[in-house]
Amino acid sequence: MPKHLNVLVQEPFESGGEMKTSYTKVGVAFPREKGEGLNFKITMGTSISGDLVVFPPRDQEYS
C-alpha cells in the first residue's frame, strides 16, 4: 500500500451531451499504525458532501 491515498469528492457534470466526472482533492488517508483501517485527514476549511473516492497518489495532481 502507498504511504498515503488521496481523498476526493466525486462530482458528475455534463459536457457535450456526455456525462463525465470531476474530482476535487479534499484530503488524504493513511494506513493505521495499529490494526486495520485508515486515518483520514480532511483539508481544514473544506466543506464536503456527496460521494468520497479514495485513489492512490499519482504524478499528476487532481484539480
Description:
The protein has 63 residues and is mainly β. It has a domain at 1-28 and 51-56. It contains no helices and four strands. It has strands spanning 5-15, 18-31, 38-42, 51-55. The chain has a four-stranded antiparallel β-sheet, with no helix packed on it. The chain is elongated, with a radius of gyration of 14 Å. The two termini are 23 Å apart. The mean pLDDT is 87.
List keywords for this structure.
63 residues, mainly beta, four-stranded antiparallel β-sheet
SSE sequence, one letter per element: EEEE
Number of helices: 0
**Radius of gyration, in angstroms, nearest whole number:** 14 Å
Q: Taking all residues together, what is the mean pLDDT?
A: 87
Biggest sheet: strands side by side, in what order?
A: 3-2-1-4
Report the biggest beta sheet as strand number plus sense, adding barrel if it closes.
4 strands, antiparallel
DSSP, total strands: 4
Shape descriptor: elongated
What class would the helix/strand composition place it in? mainly beta
Strand content: over 45%
Flag low-confidence runs. Answer: none
Through-space gap between termini: 23 Å
What layout of secondary structure does this protein have?
Blueprint: E1 5-15, E2 18-31, E3 38-42, E4 51-55
What's the quick description here?
With 63 residues, the protein is mainly beta. It has no helices and 4 strands.
